[in-house]
Amino acid sequence: MVQYIGIQDVIEVLRTLGTERVLQELAKYIEDDFRRWEDFDKVARIASGSPNGVIELMPISDGRQFAFKYVNGHPCNTNAGKLTVTAFGVLADVASGYPLLLSEMTLTTALRTAATSALAARYLARPDSRTMALIGAGAQAEFQVLAFKTMTGIEKVRVFDVDPSASARFARNLATVPGIHVHVTQSVDEGLQDADIITTATAAKKHAVVLTRSQVRPGTHINAIGGDCPGKTELDREILHASRVVVEYPPQSRVEGEIQQVDPGFPVVELWRIIAGLEVGRRAVDEVTLFDSVGFALEDFSTLRFLRDITQEIGAVRTIDLVPDVADPRDLYSLLRRDGVLAA
Ligand SMILES: NC(=O)c1ccc[n+]([C@@H]2O[C@H](COP(=O)([O-])OP(=O)(O)OC[C@H]3O[C@@H](n4cnc5c(N)ncnc54)[C@H](O)[C@@H]3O)[C@@H](O)[C@H]2O)c1
Fold first, then answer.
1. Is the Cβ–Cβ distance between 225 and 134 less than 8 Å?
2. What are phi and psi of 269, to 5 degrees?
3. Protein residue with its CA nearest to atom 17 in ligand 1
4. Which residue among 85, 108, 215, 236 has the greatest number of ligand 1 atoms within 8 angstroms of its CB, and so is best to mutate?
5. If both were cysteines, with which of 69, 77, 208, 215 could 82 make a disulfide (CB 3.0 to 4.6 Å apart)?
6. Helix, strand, or coil here: 295?
7. Does ligand 1 have an atom closer than 6 angstroms to the CB of 109?
8. Separation CA 328–CA 308 (nearest Å)
9. Enclosing H/E stretch for 318
């Protein structure tokens, strides 16, 4: 039988461990897999674009296990009461090709994106960073803040969203979280006051500029997650020229990330090299660092591994009949006999 992890199972994991511990544990899986980067057979994701958005498949394998995620990005969905991003994924055994696990990945994409952002920030942000400016308070927002709180020590968040109801919801949702103070602001500039870290998490299918070069102070770390497909960026390109730019997988990031705005030879640092100790993260206290995140398949591979282990540990394993169970593998037809289809 193939394991199935639905939304309720992920919620059970969060209830049992607590969201912050899940983010920490998940970040360890992601960090471990980035550290063994060269074990992976990697490919940029396969994207099917359309006027409203994109549908993508994200495959990866380490030779023992294979994973893929189906994910969409449709920024105008929220106008119709739908999520911008939904996802599901599969983890499979390479030796037999059998799927091991089918999992929801909408909630877990928010968790893994936040864990990856905070992981990158641990290497790139100034260690004394306590205030984060958040531009864009949509589905990813609260998860980002919880990960930065628990993994980097962020205590204050100044949020700006073009839709005041989004900022209000965000503030309400985090009001009961101890150790984090949310301040709703009316403009990007007001949001940026005292910001050590700036997270941009907006959604618009265009080359938007939510942050300009002159708004970024020396020493800032920028965690840009919203520019993640061709024709969809968030930052003034001058910011790229003024920053140490870190990406997940250059062949994908050059097509999808903020760096699609600059020449193909634009210098970037690969996150795995920093995690593996081959390059330093932040080089100087006044350096501007930028994590140009698009989301890479390895992060989903790690997430599926984590979910499999943790659901087994807490005894929350459900299965589905995705793969037939037959006594003679060449007699697939026997399923029809067994279930009375032939008699009917
Ligand atoms: N890098 C990754 O791994 C990764 C993972 C998941 C999502 N994403 C991307 O992150 C972005 C946010 O995702 P989401 O699920 O939270 O989307 P969402 O649609 O739920 O939220 C986006 C928010 O941005 C706000 N916004 C739009 N333009 C703005 C602007 N100019 N200034 C301020 N606010 C603005 C919207 O009002 C909305 O509240 C999307 O672009 C998504 O594709 C990236």
1. no
2. -110, 135
3. 138
4. 85
5. 77
6. coil
7. yes
8. 29
9. strand 318-320
- pLDDT of res. 343: 65
Active-site residue, from 228, 236, 292, 300: 228
The verdict on pTM exceeding 0.85 is yes
pLDDT in tens, 115-169: 999 999 999 999 999 999 999 999 999 999 999 999 999 999 999 999 999 999 9
Ligand 1 pocket member 281 (CB < 6 A): no
How does 111-148 read in b/e, with b if 16+ C-beta sit within 10 Å?
Answer: bbbbbbbbbbbbbbbbeebebbbbbbbbbbbbbbbbbb
Whose tokens are 């958005």? That residue is 53
Retrieve residue 7's tokens. Answer: 């939304």
In the chain, how long is the greatest CA-to-CA distance? 77
Q: Which of 84, 145, 163, 209 to mutate to test the pocket of ligand 1 (most atoms within 8 A of CB)?
A: 84
Check if 286 is active-site: no
- Tokens 């893929």 belong to 68
Return the bridge partners of 135, or none.
160, 200
